[in-house]
Amino acid sequence: MKILAIETATEACSAALLIDGAISLRYQVQPRMHSQLILPMMEELLNEAGIGLSALDAIAFGRGPGAFTGVRIAVGVAQGAAFAADLPVVPVSTLAALAQRGYREFGFRQLLPAYDARMQEVYWGGYVVDGQGLVRSVFDEEVSTPESVTLPDGLNWQGVGAGWDSYRSVLEARLGNAFSGCEPGLFCSAEDVALLGAALFNEGESVAAEQALPVYLRDKVAAKPKQVNQ
Amino acid sequence: MPGVRLKKQMRVLGIETSCDETGIALYDSDQGLLGHKLHSQVDLHAVYGGVVPELASRDHVRKTLPLIASLLAETGLSKSDIDGVAYTAGPGLVGALLVGAAIGRTLAWAWQVPAVGVHHMEGHLLAPMLEADSPEFPFVALLVSGGHTQLVEVKGIGQYRLLGESLDDAAGEAFDKTAKMMGLPYPGGPELAALALKGDPKRFHFPRPMTDRPGLDFSFSGLKTFALNTTQREIAENDSAETVLQTKADIARAFEEAVVDTLVIKCRRAVRECGAGTLVLAGGVSANRHLREKMQSAMKKEGARVYYPRTEFCTDNGAMIAYAGWQRLRAGATEPMGFSAKARWPMDSLSGI
């Protein structure tokens, strides 16, 4: 199976090419440069493997939550590549991908990924690692204040992601005994988008290019005036 | 080189997402415009009384690809028939622009065809070239919309000299704001113009801002205040609904006359100053009937011809981007793989071709 994955929702911009279990990665932490970096990364990976887009089975992309513009860069690029080459797309949660990275790099098995969502809120999810070494969601991802995030069942939960940098003390207090450490310096990577994307693709979770859409979680982005046109 | 065909036939996909319209078009170098699609977000923003940038971006990312697919189906073309991709790269709302840029640049990359980021106002400026009877260079252009009021001397594509611009509100913005103040539905400008048709041009007289001094700059925010003051003075609480409506129509008429006269006076000056025989009107306000009529008759006296796009290409659209993109691509323009969007992008910084 051949999957090209992209991820631009946070400070890191990355692309990964998964070919029959082997992964090549391009990864740079460079805020506000994602639109400059992403296509060259994809081109390099394909050239290195000596294949074209049409040789792929699918495009996987980090569909959010995350920075709105960053998420839309991944969505736009995934849409364009998939539409051009008639490929299916696999939307992957950026919170799931972050959790997967926490497992891959630190061996955490019960993960609470958090991104700073600004406006004193975090994007928040809960994941456990299954028998195949892939994270599975245990409750719906959400955007909420750090004081009111959904609590997981049981003990020994590890935090990952920059939300734990901004709100560590509040989140720790909220979790109480369930908290057993965190890695706030971890960003989402296309490597994990590729891993999860491949699994989702095998489960039939791919869609047409037009359906490659963002998940923002925060949907109230403008206040309606009390009275319009008198 | 004789016998060598320098430029083959070229079909360009145009993508416009700079504000609140998603516009898609296909332009063919030999056959002209093959087709275009437009999705307006006006209903989406109406309840907010103005364009909400984040909502605009969210809508573009849902609409762009389906519009491209439906245009291809309608024109009977396949993806491999596209030889180049043009997308609006600025000026405009950065988040909205980035949607079109991401999709457009990636399509071109995947199809291995050249891409070009088009200047939105250059698109408007060249829109009259989509018509069978199209202007020739050099000319003076009045770009007049909700976001811009500019007079530009045009010697060729990319050879632009800004002659004057609005120091405050754009003409279309003044229309919209005045309409809102008078209680007309969003976006207001076209409704104000429609109301003005029923108005008595003699009842009120509004000033013609900045026409009593030399120069080609504009100022329209004072007219909005003038309209507000007139409304407060002339409409009494016990007026009948009919009387109120007539007074509003008369104010709308006086307001429109003032904007139109101001634009005409400045265009006359610009044409004289540049010794131009051609004036191009472009942008949303160039669809205004009074403006077109008065400009025609004023330019006739100057011995100049007036050109403007068909009404649907006065406002934002993909056709003008496909056309401007084709002009740039045939001159060898290309974008690097890294794409970007510019909120601001001075027109006279463009390179000539």
UniProtKB/TrEMBL annotation, chain A:
<keyword id="KW-0819">tRNA processing</keyword>
<dbReference type="GO" id="GO:0005829">
    <property type="term" value="C:cytosol"/>
</dbReference>
<feature type="domain" description="Gcp-like">
    <location>
        <begin position="32"/>
        <end position="150"/>
    </location>
</feature>
<dbReference type="InterPro" id="IPR000905">
    <property type="entry name" value="Gcp-like_dom"/>
</dbReference>
<keyword id="KW-0808">Transferase</keyword>
<dbReference type="GO" id="GO:0002949">
    <property type="term" value="P:tRNA threonylcarbamoyladenosine modification"/>
</dbReference>
<protein>
    <recommendedName>
        <fullName>tRNA threonylcarbamoyladenosine biosynthesis protein TsaB</fullName>
    </recommendedName>
</protein>
<dbReference type="InterPro" id="IPR022496">
    <property type="entry name" value="T6A_TsaB"/>
</dbReference>
<comment type="similarity">
    <text>Belongs to the KAE1 / TsaD family. TsaB subfamily.</text>
</comment>
<dbReference type="GO" id="GO:0016740">
    <property type="term" value="F:transferase activity"/>
</dbReference>
<dbReference type="Pfam" id="PF00814">
    <property type="entry name" value="TsaD"/>
</dbReference>
<keyword id="KW-0963">Cytoplasm</keyword>
<dbReference type="InterPro" id="IPR043129">
    <property type="entry name" value="ATPase_NBD"/>
</dbReference>
